[in-house]
Write a structure and sequence with these properties.
It is built from ten helices and 13 strands. With 325 residues, the chain is of the alpha/beta class. The strands form three sheets. The protein has a five-stranded mixed β-sheet with strand order 3-2-1-4-8, with helices on both faces. The chain has a five-stranded mixed β-sheet with strand order 11-10-9-12-13, with helices on both faces. Helix 9 links the parallel strand 12 (265-269) and strand 13. The radius of gyration is 20 Å and the shape is globular.
Amino acid sequence: MAESSKEYYVGVDLGATKILAGVFDEKLNCLGKAKMSTKSQRGPEAVIERVARCVGDAIDECDLAAKQVRGVGVGAPGASDPESGRVIFAPNLVWENVPLKKSLEKRLEIPVYVENDCNIQTLGVHEKELKGKPRHLVGIFLGTGVGGGLILDGQLYSGFNRTAGEIGHMVIEVGGPKCGCGNKGCFEALASRSAIFRRIQSAVKDGQKTLLTDMLGGDLDDLRSGDLRKAIRRGDKFVEKVVEEAAEYTGIAVANVINLLNPEVVVIGGGLMQALEDEMMAIIIETAHDYAMQGTDKGIDILASQLGDDAGITGAAVLVRRNSK
């Protein structure tokens, strides 16, 4: 049973496929979680209703009452305005100008704070994993897409139009594969989970042999990041090569970030990294040092995040803690 004198924060990671909510104490220990599918096709109001239910379930899981919670932080995909709490544009949810903060506060009667999901994940890694120490940190998250977050001088940096940190849309290969954003050759189109899966599926259609088809059948519809790891460990040279190339592209992106911003730490997280850290990390580090301008990378740490799926909910709790003091 939780004590009533303590402070509690709820962090929500709102994704295109799932909503994850976690309840945290003042020391950012996670006390309980709830999970729900997003069902974005039902429209914004229905999704916000599901977020409210997921928050309620997480609070209930910890035997708390809503009035014991100081606030709810939400990491939303796409461009968000933290001042108004609106989601300006979230292509994966098909949202435009949605008043997330206002709608959620009406349902929950608890203060709500909204921020971009990758900014939030960066905040979570910075506070929980790195104890808030680095003054300058860049987070890169490899998942379905590729996102980023910037902490400069100890503060989240969101830029002039509040869209800074779109690392996934750095063009790394001019004329490369088409990206969901409309450009060609973006980092996201070369090294995200979707990009790796597309490359493998297209090669299989062209007759490429891989253990993945033995494991999952010819269409590879149920492919997961963990399957790539299994295939590589069983000696699949083709899958190994595709993953290595994605790691090299990631290393080039890290070098670009080092040349441009010179952070103390670059942290790489996300679901793809969680599944393939052993297969990718050494290549990312080596490539980053190869491409960084001589002397710029001295003493910079390039690390894999260990927070995994919890980075988003942890960072959202940090957002509440910062705003409710």
